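Objective 1.3, modelling of assemblies. Example input:
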Amino acid sequence: MPVRHADSLPTEDVAAGTATKRQVLIGPDEGPNFAMRRFIMEPGGGMPMHTNEVEHEQYVLRGSARVRIGDDMHHVKAGDVVFIPGGVPHSYDADEGGEPFEFLCVVPNRPDQIRLVDR
Amino acid sequence: MPVRHADSLPTEDVAAGTATKRQVLIGPDEGPNFAMRRFIMEPGGGMPMHTNEVEHEQYVLRGSARVRIGDDMHHVKAGDVVFIPGGVPHSYDADEGGEPFEFLCVVPNRPDQIRLVDR
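Predicted structure (tokens):
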């Protein structure tokens, strides 16, 4: 299926997150090198500080959030591009009120493990 | 620079296209495995039938277009996800009127060559 609408694809809860859902838009079974996913965080939702082994290349589709990357806090909104290198602690806190915080997140087709960071 | 707004990044004309511009959002100098680009085609613009050696994972941000992939024509719009395997001929024709056709296109960090397909 070369073309499909993202809204038609299955949604799953992200166990490590709060009010956070994930969709696989193009999975490792289709793309030979990397996978494209869409994350949807309800206002006030998010994910605590954690690391992944793989890098994230992200594009914000709508809404806004505070995103911590290492020691730096960023306020991101639609049209922002975010690069998170593998191994760097990061967190998401979707802004209260307004629309959900939605972003694409592309990752390489490699084994990954999410590790929560104790702060 | 872990966060930047796409609108702040340089834009270049795509030589093989018509009224088509490209921005590198996350380049191969930053992402170790793949690059994220944004294409902007003015209404009526586009790219003729061509092949790339690498696959494309795409997400339509706004506008609409006729996208041919192999022998199949698709009408795509915001929120549509498009996968084009390496080597498969494809073309873009942004719809006349309305807003520009804008999409993300992620490609692996590998040498690529664009070849126009004689129809």
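The interface with chain B takes residues 1-7, 9, 25-26, 30-34, 36, 55, 57, 59, 61, 67, 69, 72, 74, 76, 79-84, 104, 106, 108 of chain A (CB under 8 Å).
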